[in-house]
Predict the structure.
Amino acid sequence: MKLAQFIAIAPELILSLAIVMQLLLIALKRSQHGIAFFTMSAILLALFAHYPAMTQVNSAVTPLIYVDVFSLTLKVLILSCTLVAVWVSYGYLRSAVEFHDEYYVLLLLAVLGANILVLANHFAAVFLGFELLSLSLVGMIGYLHLRQHTLEAGFKYLILSATASSIMLLGMAFVYGATGELSLAYQVPGQQNLRLLGQAGLVLIMVGFSFKLSLVPFHTWTPDVYQGAPMPVTLLLATVSKAAMFAILVKFWLVSAIFNNETLQVLLLSIAIASMLLGNLLALTQKNIKRLLAYSSIAHMGYLIIVLAIQSQQSVAWALKSGVFYILVYILATLILMIYLAGRSKAHGVHDQDDWRDWQGMIWRRPAHGACLILALLSLAGIPLTAGFIGKFYLFTVAIENQLWGAIAALIIGSGIGLYYYLSIIFCILAKPPVTQCQTVAVSGGSFTISHTTVMAMLTVIIIALGVFPDILASQLMFQSEQIPIIFNEAALKSEW
Amino acid sequence: MTALTLLPFFPLFSFLILIIFSKRLNWQLATVIALSGVGLSFLASVLLINDLYAVSQSSDISAGVRESLWTWFMLGEHEVQVAFFLDPLSAVMIAVVTGVGWLIHGFAAAYMREDENYSRFMAYMNLFICAMLILVLADNLVLLYLGWEGVGLCSFLLIGFWYQEPGNAIAARKAFIVTRIGDTLLALGLFYLFLETNTLNIQEILAQQDSSPLSSEAAWWIALLLLGGAVGKSAQLPLHTWLPDAMAGPTPVSALIHAATMVTAGVYLIARMQGVYLQAPDILNLVAWTGSLTLLIAGIAALAQEDIKRVLAYSTMSQIGYMMLGLGAGANVAAITHLMTHAFFKALLFLTAGAIILAAHHQQNIFHMGGLLKRMPLISILFVIGIAALIAFPGTSGFVSKEAIIGQLWQSPTAGPAFWWMAILGAFITSLYSFRLVFITFFGQYRGQHELHPQRHFLLLVPLCMLAVLAILGGYIPTNLEQVFVAVDAPDSQSPSWLHSVAIGLPLVAIVVAYVIYFPRANATEPVPGKGSLYRFSRNGLGFDATYDALLVKPFVKLAKLNRHDAIDLLVQLISWNAFTWNSAAKAIQSGRLRWYAATLGIGTIILLLGVML
Amino acid sequence: MIDIPITHVFMISALLFCVGFIGVLARRNTLFMLMSLEVMLNAVGLAFVGAGSLWQEADGQIMFILILTLAAAEVAIGLALLIRMQHQRHNVDVDGLSQLRG
Amino acid sequence: MILTNIIAILMLVALVSLIIGSKFSRSLPYLAAGSVVLCFFLLARFASNNHDIFHQAMPLLSVPWITSLGIDYATFIDSLSFILVALTLILALVCILVSVNEIQHHHNFYYFNLLTALAGIIGVFAAADLFLFFFFWEVMLLPMTALIAIWGHENRRYAAIKFFIFTQVSSLLMLVAIIIMAFIHQQQFGEISFNYFDWQRLNLSMPLQYWLMLGFFIAFAVKLPSFPFHTWLPDAHTQAPTAGSVLLAGVLLKTGAYGLMRFVLPLFEQATVEFAPIAIALGVISIIYGAVMAFAQSDFKRLVAYSSISHMGFVTLALFSFSSIAYHGAIVTIVAHGLSSAALFSMAGILYQRLHTRELSKMGGLFASAPRMGGMLLVFVAAAFGMPGLLNFVGEFMTLTGTFASHPVATVLAATAMIGSAIYGMYLFQGSFQGKPHAGVQIADLLAHEWLLCGLLFALLLYLGLFPQSLLMHFEAIYPAANITVTGGKL
């Protein structure tokens, strides 16, 4: 291990160190604020640690980890989301009587898992990150034990994700059996007699990730867990976990040769199309905003993985760029909504304020919030002036460049259906305010502070800015083959292994 | 900007003044403005006609004065101009329109005096005159179409002038829409004409007929479509049903629009486009048929009317039928002359009828009149003069024109003896219903409820007298129309000598018949006897209205109302409904049962595995 | 000693895995569900060890050890939730947990 | 630069009115009207200074925007866009005038939406880059939808959602077509381009061209709207506030026609020739169907909405008959319908303010109390059923004259709409203003600002109706596309 390699994984080291120190801190003195601020500063430090890490791109740290631009970008994204999550959680938990220090430990553990996942270049690392992430998420979902829903949500997540991950592990075992290689980079189709085994393994691995990305038909857990989990945890689930899973899926797809296979692409595309349609259909009449976001996330992940169905080497870079841009935009919009919801809810409330019909007439009562939410929803719906449109536009370009007509059709139909429920919410926000005050608890109260408004406003501004001048970000996202080791090529794609 | 171009604008200006200051003008002022508007254009047209004659005397070529104002729009290379053209034909028309129009305006001023919307009424009348002048002076067919539609709109406005009575409104709408059908045919004719000749300028089209005539098929269609327009406007079969209902309007309106001027526009159009019709003899024959059938049917219907104005309306139809017949038979000059004379005597009839109605407190049923000869002798005399002209009593203007038409029928290439007989029969019926009217209205005792209050306003009487004079002498007004029309060479086969005497005699015989039948019943308050089905059938205009109603109007309305919620929209709603059903179906997946979720996980895995294996 | 063809190993582990999975589906008692999870994980472990021995590498066994730790962690959290469940609902019937739906 | 300035001004004023408007809601109309007039003045001065925009398209401001896809912010102007922008600004004034008394709440947000919608529409007419075009195409929807959804009538949400989803989904099809075109340009000329003028160099193989053309056509047919895609329109028009209806009918529908003229006809000549029979059939069906449906309605605005479908059918008919006479007819019809339908909807609004109903059955006999209003309504109805002397007549006449040469049957069918329009026109006028007045129904006659807008529209309809050349003279030189395809059409 040289210094360079330490620098390359400095963020992760910082996080791990921070976790240890958190435990010490808890042992030393239990304080609501102290731990929160410590966590935040740790994450900030980890974020800053990416600057030196930038110098070490394309360096392998042990066979397990490989640092490249793509993973660094996503790590930055993940850590920023975490930062927001911590801050939101602080506001959310502050109101409770008891101390919630462990919560932050779990949170950091989850993020560490996500980061490892993003960096992983080896089944073992994938496995570690994956489990670290899911187990600590289970802990956080079930965290507010006084609510009855959290228990249910936590248990569902535990059982299902455990099942899913064991399925994935079985897949890894099969692949290992077929190829004799645990590292992603060197896996090549192995001996003929184990072909079937290898294929089965790949499918099982795909199942594992589809579960985490909540793609149809492995999506069933999503709405329940989103609804049952405390709002900040839902936020983590919707942003950090999704981003990490997308990253590792991309790695499998583009870095590992055995995934470079047409049959799998067909499977993936069909999964994507199913998710777009079913996700939007399920959300159509949903009144609970948390569940609705869960369903829409199903659809959005469906849109997103279109970028993996690329057919030719030269479109890889563009596809990656589009993918990263899209998930970024998706996360931005989701953050706005979830920050608002988290701000309006309290840890010791019976449940979170998650019925969007309570938002009626918000634009006239609280114009700033109303505007932010409307723009976030528009961005999710992919309407111009918002970044969501640019994201969708990029996806269209990728899909068309690779001539995925089925996906395009589903994309159009899906967003057609999607418009209905996004617009319903928007019109509800625009409607005349209800006469009785009691209906509008969701529009007031909670742990909402001016800082929530500011952050929401800032994010909204970013959304608009990206929507009008996408280049300010898009030109920064460079995923040429020199920045990321891609062995993907169409020749292999077509070849039958 | 000479008198010709100014001609239509005098009434337009007076219209504008009247409509803008409508309520603020008192009766005198409004009258002065309205009358001066039309009067000026009358004077102008007299001057113009003199000039025209001067020109035509000096040179034997068919002279015409053309004044162009501006280019309206371009059809490809062809400029559609706003331009006026005056030749003997349009000269006759403008003389009639402005002259008779002026007199009728005068009468109307007295007739409508009490009405609260008096100046609005006069404004509409002026606007009508303007539109009518544009129609007859137009040098291209598009501008003619403008006038054509303009008079239609004015007629709509004036029929429905007392808009608060639903009946009037319906009559107005009916008149507008039925004529609109004709207008559409006319428009199609224009399109076809433009396609063939690449111009819509009337003189150019007619000139082309000498050099490069239309193909017979094209001419056939174009002539037919133009005829369609003509029958709509001129209330000929089969688009005649609007005219009797149009009597809902104030009587001066009936006199001006539905007797003297607008309804003759169709005749004018066909006469104008004679060059095209000559290329399509079948259609000329059809014109003759249209005219003859109309004049018979209208005459029969007139026999059974109880409303004095409806009698006159049907007689108008039949008289225009004569004009059509004349055009069809190639007796253009006679037809146009009859147009002129008819304008005189029919205006006279309507106005006198109006005077009677006014005196009788808007009682229009002839069976509640009677004995008027004693009570308002002057009016009665004038009315009878009109009737005399109507039945072509020798020495009246009607005699001159109608005999001229009938005389040419027998040996016309496009008509023939059959038409002659129909015309004669028509003449017989004409005098029959005329004198039925006369006997029942003017003889016997007065049978009305209210006491008569004859008006004596000079504006009421002067126009009547002048019209009476015209009705007698109008036939001798020189119109050198001969230069306008291509003379149809008649075969030299000699027509039998008894024709003429029969043509003169039969109407007189009819008077006697009418005397025998109707005079005894001069005191009847009921149209007895024969109040049978036949009578009712003919009173209802031989059931045309009922037929159209059942065949066209009702189905259309039903169809429209049936689909008022737009079947296509249901399709759209089906889609959305579909989405929602799928939504509720998909919700079943989210049962919230953990073990079911795990099962979906397993099922999904198996499906994928199978997918990759197979 | 007789050497077992590698395919058999994978078949066994697959079968074992299915047993575990069916256990998850079939049992309503939460405790047994957790146990079935263990079974699944062990099936995976078996597969890894088998694969390792096939390629004459230690990686298989290493993965197995990792999996064991995972199993331990999972059970820990699982049991914690189980206790909460017992407290709240006084039973451990998993079908009771179905308020979140739709 | 000019169009960009206009858009910028409108946007700026919109923002200002949004931010500070809540204080001075009374003076907002003046502000908005002032900005619109200023824009109109700028446009007029620009046009008078450089006349050559009437002879060939004049590229305006163009700056790189999304470099990775070769997308520029590129605008241009020619006589078509000039006329449409001018029309937009005129109708903008009308919108503001009708809003004066109608809008009761949230004035600042209302005028924000109104002005942004205008900016978006003008952007559509200005864009030379197809991505920019699509961008504006969508941008104009949002405020439009907001106008319907917030200030609309009883059933506004349904209408707004329907309107938005219809247009959105159809325009996604167009987006796909646009991107494909860009990639084709990449294949043929190396670099990817969304620029309209670059695209004119493309040569497209036949089946592909047909599909692309369909992608555009459907989007525009929905906007137009053409027969099978029209059902969003009656709801949207009926439920929208008066200004919204005016904007929808007056300008928004025209963007569809503009799209057909600007993109479908020139870019896909061969495909359009093959597609023409279907398009003409659709046009004729819309003409007749619209007319019949209009007669069946009992709601004032709904009736006018269906009549719009009928009138826009003439545009489809004209454009796909590939005759330059009909092409000019289409241009005239666009302007004419813009003015007349705007006028009729304003009338509906004026009546609604007095009677609080749109039901014809609840009106009737209003002529007694409001003769001047009745006169105006009569004039506008007359315009709608093609009274010669008013602009609509010229449009219809030229359209049908031009079409008759190549499609006589279609023309004859379309001509029946002249009867149909008379029927529903009379039904509308008599139903509202003639007949027995309802007991105690007394309405105030036109107010000053209502006079202003009626007078403005009437003057325009009359002037252009008598001197349509002032509109058409600029269209001789340009648009070879129409004439090229004439030969193609005759083949």
